[in-house]
Amino acid sequence: MSPTEGTRSDTAPLRRRPKTRAGKRALERRAPKLNENPKRLLGVRAMKASRVAVECVRDLLALRKPDAVWLSRRNELRPMDADTEPSLEFLLQRNDCSLFMLASHQKKRPHNVVIGRAFDGRVLDALELGIQNYRSAQSFRGQGVAGAALGTQPCLCFLGEAFQTSAPHERIRNLLLDMFHGQAVSAVNLAGLDRVIVVAAVDTAQLHFRQYAIQFKKRPDGDTRLPQVQLQEIGPAIDFQVRRTRLAADEQMRRAMPDAKRPRRLATAPDSAATGPRPSKNIRFDAGRFARVGAVYVPRQDLSQLPLAKMNGLRRRSRERNGGVG
């Protein structure tokens, strides 16, 4: 079953007018920033949700702790439809979350999980996944496998040709990376890397989600400079089926990307009348790679003015042309 792609028009977000100074500061903390705060993940359940979908969502929420919130109360939410967006956006703003995960169950779409993210108070994109096979993280711990420590930085590995050749899967990879990468840090202690999350795209409609613990063992040859790395599965282990995708328009992605919002260096001359950022020339946005691409123009060189080493033979010819003087 091939995923379908949907887009959404760019609409202005609903704003609350602060009535107090404390309320103004609270809204400023929740406003979009260039250097964002750690993103929080909101887990909710629909009016009809299966036990498998709920346990799967709670296992995925545990990977984001302590930046995760679970609402056990049932809500009438359908992120893939536009009519229930205000209710979902209200819950996101109320709990100060920009990522969400919904568990639902229908006869047409059993054991359903919808993951997505929001920008500036509005739903940006969403991905609907169906659970085909699921093994909880608790079942791995029952076999004597220790779980990952709370708040550690995971490694993420995306396998499959679809992540490189399919435009929807490139956006899916970006969404999953935003969902599970953890907090942004300037440096990482290699000894603290204790787990790796692997997402494999078997084809355009199948995603396999696995988590492994990174273990450092002694090398059999006795070399102590580099340890031997082994992976042990700690769960959850989930086989997803990609059902529906609701991807943001390119204009929304340009506004949501940090590079698109980064101000350029202003002129520092005292007589400069520039009051805003410099215009960007020869720079365009590549929608396929979601990156800025620049063009550099090099002028043609005049090789006649190229300085060369003066040789004795050239000097002799110059004296002959000047009448033997020199």
Automatic annotation (TrEMBL):
GO MF entries: rRNA binding
Presence of keyword DNA-binding: no
Keywords: Nucleus
Domain of life (superkingdom): Eukaryota
Keyword hit for Nucleus: yes
Signal peptide range in chain numbering: none
GO CC annotation, single: nucleolus
InterPro entries linked to this entry: Brix, Rpf2
Region spans: Disordered: 1-34, 254-283
Compositional bias annotation for Polar residues: 1-10
Subcellular location(s) of the protein: Nucleus, Nucleolus
Example GO BP: maturation of LSU-rRNA from tricistronic rRNA transcript (SSU-rRNA, 5.8S rRNA, LSU-rRNA)
Pfam families xref list: Brix
Principal location class: nucleus
Biased segments, Basic and acidic residues type: 25-34
Boundaries of every Brix domain copy: 39-251
Basic residues bias: start-end ranges: 14-24
Family listed: Belongs to the RPF2 family.
Protein name: Ribosome production factor 2 homolog
